Amino acid sequence: MSRRAAVPRGAAKAQDRGWAWMVLLAVVLLQGLTLGFPSCIGIFFTDLQRDFHASNSETSWFPSIMVAVLHAGGPLCSLLVKRFGCRFAVMLGGLLSSVGMVSSSFCTSLSELYLTAGFITGLGMCFSFQAGVTSLRYYFVRWQALANAMASTGVSLGLTLWPLLSQYLLDEMGWRNTFLIFGGILLNCCVCGAIMRPVQLASKSLLQPARPAEEPGREAEETALANGGSSPHPKAQPARRTSRFQMLKKYLAFDILCQNKGYQIYTIGMTWMMLGFALPHIYLVPYAIHSGVEERMAALLVSVIGFINIFIRPLTGLLSGLSFFTGRRIYLFCLAVLLSGLSNFICVISAKFSVLILYCVILSIAISGVGALTFQVLMDVVDMDRFSSALGLFTILESISLLTGPPLTGFLVDITRNFHCVFYTSSFFLISAALFMAFSFCALERKNKLKEASNAPLDNSSKRQRNEISAEPLSERQTPPTEVRTTNI
């Protein structure tokens, strides 16, 4: 039998009130430090190209690796959260992020930068960000949609402040010293992790779940490890393989991907969408500088996107929390993705600063909806007890797109010598993904309604049949056996 810790009344009081709001504040800061950070990489794009004599495609691998690892480390983060809790994962992520940026300030080639600022910093940001998002589902129930939207405003703060700080430090002391300072700033993730005080559930910690005792093969595997890796029993080896397979299946959520049609559609659509979603954030500043806009003004464009996000994301969260949008948040999300794709055509019309400001305003409104609803829609289509695993697989598939999209687009820019292909490519992926998800969920909803309607008459007829049988006299029904023997096997 599986063991489940009973939830005492004191634990319920910790949700939606008190210290939960301090944890929300920590998650806001975490998202600003992690998800908001890649937005400033475009400011260093020209300097890195000049110092390392690299092409657009080669330089774009640096932010691509960072963002891809930030998403791909989801399953590993899930294992850390299950084993050690959210607090440990967040603090470990802050330490890795800091070490990666400090090390990157001493790099002598782009390949070294791929490892330090790309892989190590990206992995650390993944631990801090995803463990922070996971902690919200324990602390908030009634106000979960609002909490997710408010937490995503941290990304807006990061988008606003990181570019301005980056441009100032770059002008004053160069990119190497700037990366060194960034390493110190990212250590604040450890402070945010310390705030995530575990909620006690009886003798267990809600933010530090106990290992399930019912996993098949667990005892055999632990006994084998205790004996130096040898199996104490001939059946221990198959049990170990079964345990590992079930753990892999559990933490990578392949069963959800195969069985849950909503999760299937959403994951495919998001994976396709991410091929174009990050392109404007990476290439907007280089495009503006290439078109004659001053570097400080080009950096201001990203800050405008972040500033508007601060106000629009909470409004989107409140709007999506209305009862009217219950079960319909996916359509609101698709509308935001569609608007984001259409807005890219503004950049193609003109590269004047005033036109780019208009583009940033419209794009900011669109991505506010995308950012505020991404995880809320995922929570709608997946059971909460599997959310962490579903998030891990979801972000792994996203990372493949985030890793390949920018370098391939950079290769197109190197060939064509035209930045317009960046925005055409982004629009294609965003618009097609929005239409795919909207029509697929609409078809799935219609199919489910038809299935419910077809099952309803069968259920009613079976109920009537059972009532008729129960109303028959006992003499008219089959005589029950006079003796029943029970054998325990």
Automatic annotation (TrEMBL):
Keywords: Membrane, Transmembrane, Transmembrane helix. It comes from Nothoprocta pentlandii. Its main location: membrane. PANTHER family: MONOCARBOXYLATE TRANSPORTER (PTHR11360), MONOCARBOXYLATE TRANSPORTER 6 (PTHR11360:SF21). It comes from the Eukaryota. Residues 217-240, 455-489 are annotated as: Disordered. One of its GO terms (cellular component) is basolateral plasma membrane. Residues 20-445 form the Major facilitator superfamily (MFS) profile domain. InterPro entries: MFS (IPR011701), MFS_dom (IPR020846), MFS_trans_sf (IPR036259), Proton-linked_MCT (IPR050327). GO terms for molecular function: monocarboxylic acid transmembrane transporter activity. It is a multi-pass membrane protein. The chain crosses the membrane at residues 21-45, 61-81, 88-107, 113-133, 145-165, 177-196, 265-285, 297-318, 330-350, 356-378, 390-410, 422-444. This is MOT6 protein. It is found in: Membrane. Residues 476-489 have a biased composition (Polar residues). Pfam families: MFS_1.
